[in-house]
Amino acid sequence: MNYPINEIFQTIQGEGYYTGTPSIFIRLQGCPVRCQWCDTKYTWTCSNNNQISYEELVKKKISDQTWSYINAIQILENIKKKEWTAKHVVITGGEPCIYNLLYLTTELEKQGFKCQIETSGTKIIKCSSNTWVTVSPKQHQNTLPASILRSDEIKYPILKQEDLFYLEKMLSMVKNKKCRVFLQPISQNQEALKICIKNCIIKNWRLSIQLHKYILIK
Ligand code: SF4
């Protein structure tokens, strides 16, 4: 099965539970969610005009709208060729769950990788049962209760105190699940950071600060 992929790179995971973990990021092209503060707007559309070859994609150095259809075998070949050592794979986007990720996650797991999906939770999540699912709900978007139930962590972006109402509302829909919640200030906003710290302490949640943006890596 081929997936439209925007970029593949090795770095350190900067967000949520796996912060600090060496990771291979696979960024899928396409997202219908359209968050206002999105920092990967170049992934939104999957236009044929921006389709490039596999060879061009693996050499790509900049983040732009170009993408290529790639399958799991090619991904594994590329990881081997580049001699990447990370054993954790983060499948992100865009919104990766507009695609069926069962095949991709299963193939990566067969080769010894631990998979993580980062999703808005607005689409049905299709992946292996061992995949770590990070649901990052967006305010005023339709996060599915099934996504919250499947999640291993909830990474919630915060700009103002009122943003917490939507999170509390979602958590109340899945009362029987013990959720691992991370609050993450949007765009390193200092006021948002204070709100996150305050509420993490009150609720015994955890803080996610987008470490990669502070240490200036991708
Ligand atoms: S779901 Fe993610 S990729 Fe899509 S618009 Fe929102 S932040 Fe951007």
From TrEMBL:
Residues 18-218 form the Radical SAM core domain. Keywords: 4Fe-4S, Iron, Iron-sulfur, Lyase, Magnesium, Metal-binding, Queuosine biosynthesis, S-adenosyl-L-methionine. InterPro entries: 7-CO-7-deazaguanine_synth-like, Aldolase_TIM, rSAM, rSAM_QueE_proteobac, rSAM_sf. [4Fe-4S] cluster binds at C31, C35, C38. Its EC number is 4.3.99.3. One of its GO terms (biological process) is tRNA queuosine(34) biosynthetic process. It comes from the Bacteria. Substrate binds at I12, Q13, G14, R27, T92. HAMAP family: QueE. NCBIfam families: rSAM_QueE_Ecoli. This is 7-carboxy-7-deazaguanine synthase.
